[in-house]
């Protein structure tokens, strides 16, 4: 098994990469967060499409699904189920297998979606990923190299993503502070291309602590990017190296590594910025984050090099079509922004805004037929060039 330890990352991952940051963008969030501005959808979006998902007892979607959109399909991931709908009209196609211990069944849906194939990799029971393509066909199991599920010295992936059709990236659970590796690149045949050393590794073992919001992967321009909660640098990942992409300067609001073992009360008092979830296009970098118990939206324009922050507690002001304000949480491989409108929120908006509804385009007025208990409406927006 080939293992490459990337020693030079020790300098990067601490968040103090000033030597390299001179040639890459630096987004100064620490100062921008104190000067919130108004951001409208028209600032970065040119068009919006709404797709109501079909509702039946065979395909009920909960309030916090992960949504993936391809040219043909919409994939909704719940805690224990995966449903596929048509992108054209939201018609239900199939459920992809289900939770269980039988042949082809999985332990959890907390795997990843590979849009290039396209296929979903579910978490299996014994250090494996269970692979299904969107036609519902089982395509085999992928063994995670070096997997160890124990409290003493865990080697457990927390998040996954993909580099191409067969190469997978994952970050590891850092629970006690002495785990040696933080990131691994491997393929479906268990070949390891790169292991990244945990530069935050402590000399003294801490009490086992589990967090699920410490890292994020995202794609842009067919490339994979990664950031850790305790590091301001966003890195571009290839199968054998990692390079800085940009820096999000959180200043005094960047969490200290040792803070993950602080008491809950002390963490609240420290007032750190949460790990952002990035959505990037040729012109923009946008992301949501939490600060002081409030959700914010950030928009960076690569052309003007200007960073803007706004309160996103109730969505971004929709001045495109006059309909509901929207929050985007995902982006697909075609660079489209993906959001959700819950049926109960939609019904409530219609009841409160009968006059606004009358002047909306016919396609939006048809949404008045949605009931409180129906599945959500998927929102697909096109970024400005």
Concise summary:
The chain is mainly beta and 385 residues long. The protein has seven helices and 25 strands. The longest helix has 10 residues.
Structural overview:
The chain has 385 residues and is mainly beta. It is built from 7 helices and 25 strands. The longest helix has 10 residues, at 343-352.
Q: Main attributes?
A:
385 residues, 7 helices, globular, 25 strands
**Given the structure, what is the number of helices?**
7
The coarse overall form would be globular
- Give the percentage of residues in beta strands: 35-45%
Main beta sheet strand tally, sense and closure: 5 strands, mixed
What kind of assembly state do the chains in view correspond to?
A: single chain
Sheet/helix structural class: mainly beta
Secondary structure layout plus pairing:
Layout lengths: L8 H4 L5 H4 L4 E3 H4 L12 E8 L13 E4 L3 E5 L4 E5 L5 E4 L12 E7 L4 E5 L4 E6 L4 E6 L13 E6 L4 E6 L8 E7 L4 E6 L17 E6 L2 E6 L4 E5 L4 E8 L14 H7 L6 E4 L3 E8 L2 E8 L4 E6 L16 E4 L4 E6 L1 H10 L1 H5 L3 H4 L11 E7 L2
Parallel strand pairs: 1-18
Antiparallel strand pairs: 2-25, 3-4, 4-5, 5-6, 7-8, 8-9, 9-10, 11-12, 12-13, 13-14, 15-16, 16-17, 17-18, 19-20, 20-21, 21-22, 23-24, 24-25
